[in-house]
């Protein structure tokens, strides 16, 4: 079991690193090769489509992972989910096409939505196979599924850029081709690797039973989808696509900085599902896991803020670095809260507390939307970041108040301690050093020493960590 866990974590980490590097390459070429208004329009369209297709999943995607991990029939569960994505995806794209007849003189934004939406529809059709692979813990196969589109898009953009053919038209064609290739690849690798007969069998009773079971999670998906990109859409429509270009660049780097969490998160649902079926819950191991996550999150906050301006201004010719210093600082403070929220969400989801999770996201969404409406008109991108930080903090407080495990009531303490260690090490290094690389090295060293001094790293952790892996 220990070897399998490490293997799964390694495969998932490699896939995420590769995918994030490819995604970063795509983002870098688009952000530097396009003017800010065009880059902002693409991001506005992607934000709308991301929210829409997440909502169309109705929360069934995560439920499928849980059901397959718990031993439910894979073929039957997968068939129901395929029926769902085919029906909802076709209806949604039909609405987009139908909008043309209501607005025949649609502008560039509509055509970007329709064309890029076709590609995202292919991605949506591939999700049942990815979620089934996740639930079966076939992470190597899942890794192949997840990198196909980004490989095609990244290397395609490199060719377009070097050949001087980087245009909005060619970019859209490339995106559609990459997304279609991912769908074909996912179907083929699943059929030949899993050896499960693939078929679409409509069962009305089972489908509506699945929908009812996913109903609380559907509410969560509705809210998280809007929460994830509401600020992008709000900035793009009510402020300007230029400000959205700047904010989306900072937000993308912020998302990439959560790479360790992205590597760990898919493993937690199957793992916690098994753990909370046991008579004895390994609370010491869970507490160590939460503390490790807080140390990693705070270290990321430290690295992100020290490296931001010199690195980003250097690679974007001054377009997105200094102008986003305040935005990235506020966003980076969200990281420890996001780690802790995912930790508790995985526990509650594995235990089936879907209604409680739904309420948490309703509260979080309300805080975020209210913050966006109040702060964005006055503070623009910094206001959006502050609203998101406030929503993350509120969600953390809610999860802590709902926690019934006495042993986990103090897992918030490492969050504050690690953040203070990171802030102190950054302040000290900036006070004594001017060279960026020396400043970075000294800050990391001081941070490590402060973790030992505050007993966030302990000698006894070694034995608990071994038990955690086993």
In short:
With 470 residues, the protein is mainly alpha-helical. It contains 17 helices and no strands. The chain folds into two domains: 1-202, no CATH class; 219-470, no CATH class.
Structure report:
The protein has helices at 2-33, 36-56, 60-69, 74-102, 108-135, 139-162, 168-194, 204-238, 241-256, 259-275, 283-315, 325-332, 334-350, 354-402, 413-432, 436-453, 461-469. It is mainly alpha-helical. It folds into two domains: 1-202, no CATH class; 219-470, no CATH class. Helix 5 (108-135) packs antiparallel against helix 6 (139-162), helix 12 (325-332) packs across helix 14 and helix 15 runs antiparallel to helix 16 (436-453). The longest helix has 49 residues, at 354-402. The model has no long low-confidence stretch (mean pLDDT 85).
Keywords:
470 residues, 2 domains, 17 helices, globular, mainly alpha
Summarize the SSE layout with pairings.
Elements: H1 2-33, H2 36-56, H3 60-69, H4 74-102, H5 108-135, H6 139-162, H7 168-194, H8 204-238, H9 241-256, H10 259-275, H11 283-315, H12 325-332, H13 334-350, H14 354-402, H15 413-432, H16 436-453, H17 461-469
């Amino acid at each position: 079991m220990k070897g399998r866990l490490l293997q799964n974590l390694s495969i998932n980490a490699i896939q995420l690193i590769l995918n994030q590097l490819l995604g970063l390459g795509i983002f870098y070429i688009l952000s530097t090769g396009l003017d800010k208004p065009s880059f902002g329009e693409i991001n506005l369209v992607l934000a709308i489509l991301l929210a829409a297709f997440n909502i169309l999943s109705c929360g069934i995607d995560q439920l499928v992972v849980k059901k397959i991990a718990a031993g439910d029939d894979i073929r039957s569960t997968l068939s129901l989910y395929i029926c769902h994505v085919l029906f909802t995806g076709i209806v949604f794209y039909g609405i987009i096409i139908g909008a043309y007849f209501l607005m025949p003189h649609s502008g560039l934004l509509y055509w970007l939505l329709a064309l890029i939406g076709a590609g995202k529809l292919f991605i949506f059709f591939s999700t049942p196979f990815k979620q089934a692979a996740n639930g079966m813990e076939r992470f190597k196969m899942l890794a192949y599924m997840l990198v196909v589109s980004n490989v095609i898009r990244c290397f395609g953009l490199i060719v377009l850029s070097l050949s001087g053919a980087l245009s909005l038209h060619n970019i859209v064609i490339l995106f559609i081709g990459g997304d279609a290739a991912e769908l074909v690849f996912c179907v083929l690798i699943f059929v030949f690797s899993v050896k499960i007969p693939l078929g679409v069998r409509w069962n009305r009773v089972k489908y509506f039973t699945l929908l009812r079971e996913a109903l609380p999670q559907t509410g969560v998906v509705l809210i998280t989808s809007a929460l994830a990109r509401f600020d992008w859409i709000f900035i793009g429509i009510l402020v300007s696509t230029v400000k959205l270009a700047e904010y989306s660049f900072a937000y993308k780097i912020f998302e990439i900085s959560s790479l360790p969490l992205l590597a760990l998160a898919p493993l937690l649902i199957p793992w916690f599902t098994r753990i909370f079926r046991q008579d004895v819950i390994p609370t010491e191991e869970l507490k160590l896991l939460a503390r490790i996550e807080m140390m990693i999150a705070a270290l990321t906050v430290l690295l992100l803020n020290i490296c931001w301006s010199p690195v980003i201004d250097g690679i974007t010719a001054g377009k997105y670095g200094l102008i986003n210093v305040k935005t990235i600082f506020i966003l980076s403070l969200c990281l420890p809260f996001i780690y802790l929220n995912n930790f508790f969400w995985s526990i509650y989801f594995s235990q089936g507390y879907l209604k409680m999770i739904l309420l948490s996201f309703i509260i979080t969404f309300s805080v975020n939307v209210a913050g966006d409406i109040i702060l964005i008109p006055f503070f623009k991108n910094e206001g959006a970041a502050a609203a998101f930080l406030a929503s993350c903090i509120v969600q953390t407080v809610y999860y802590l108040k709902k926690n019934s495990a006495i042993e986990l009531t103090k897992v918030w303490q490492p969050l504050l301690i690690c953040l203070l260690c990171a802030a102190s090490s950054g302040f000290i290094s900036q006070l004594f050093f001017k060279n960026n690389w020396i400043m970075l090295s000294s800050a990391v060293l001081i941070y490590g020493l402060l973790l030992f001094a505050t007993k966030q790293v302990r000698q006894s952790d070694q034995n608990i960590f071994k038990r955690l892996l086993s």
